[in-house]
Amino acid sequence: MFHALSRFGRRRTLQTGAVLAVVLGLLAWWLQPRGDEGVPSGSLTFSTGVPSGVYQRYGERLEVALAKDIPEVSIRLRTSEGSQQNLARVATGEADFTIATADAVATYLRDGRPGAQRLRGCVRLYDDYVQLVVPRDSDVRTVADLRGKRVGVGQEGSGVRLVADRLLAAAGLDPADDVTPVPVGIDTMPVRLTQGRLDAFFWSGGLPTAAVQELSQRYDIRLVPLEAELVAKLQAATGPTRFNRSAMMPADAYPQAQQGQAVPTVAVANLLVTTDRTDAAMTEAFTRTVINSRDRIGREVHAAQLVDLRTAIYTDPLDVHDGAKDYYRSVKP
User: Fold this and answer.
1) How far apart are CA 319 and CA 283, in angstroms?
2) Do the beta carbons of residue 47 and residue 56 sit within 8 Å?
3) How far apart are CA 254 and CA 99, in angstroms?
4) Among 40, 120, 44, 42, which residue's Cα sits nearest to residue 77?
5) Hey, which residues does 263 pair with through a beta bridge?
6) Per mean pLDDT, which of 5-14, 24-33, 196-205 is the most reliable?
7) Which residues, including other chains, have CB under 8 Å from residue 317's CB and lie 6 or more apart?
8) 72: pLDDT strictly greater than 70
């Protein structure tokens, strides 16, 4: 009987020990940090813009902020011609995130370009302002005066090219025949203007754009007004132009060029864009960093100061990515 009780005791002890081990194991699992759950890792490519443009300058500073916020993610910046090329890269999987103007997005969707239906919005960023730059002594006073001139219209894959062609058409000019279009970007337009190889150039970017600002400080330039009547014709033209609106460039955007005068122009919103392929946790973290780094980046890239949490979710014409929605829900009062 003693041996039977001993066997019973050992069996009971073993059973109790097994249960205790399970309980302790579950408790340890419950209490352990969830560091790897929902924390982004891996790599991503961010398609930006031309080297001296706002997209690239913003991207460089955002890369630093992202490296702090999501250190397990390797980030690659990739320069581009602009919005149109950016969208094509993201939609087809060559990049994970990018910036593009809302009118370029609408055009991409309307034309049914590859991967268009996969595009998603994350943040409504800052506005781009169209800037038509000429030498101060130029006889160009309106867009219509560009007839017969050599005009920088932006690279083929840029949002500048879209709006430049549309503005020329709205002014009654054929973009291919009535001007000599020069398909170059903001990285080379200023030097071509100073060398007399361009009579004017279009640029669309945040204010101030460093390349235009630097040009105004060493060369006498002027900004040609884009009056409300022209913008109305632009908006009435065929195509998704409802995203272009009349705006005023403040007098202090380029003090040397504007000489105390605000300049009427066209504005369009920029969007942070990804696709439905992108992980929700990655998108939430990226969106969070964009919002939280606004002031820090804005000290160096003025346009970033205009990112506003109250309007960031309005990424029309794109649906908001689920990961970005998660972020906005998390900060909703």
Assistant:
1) 14
2) no
3) 24
4) 44
5) 249
6) 196-205
7) 102, 105, 106, 109, 240, 243
8) yes
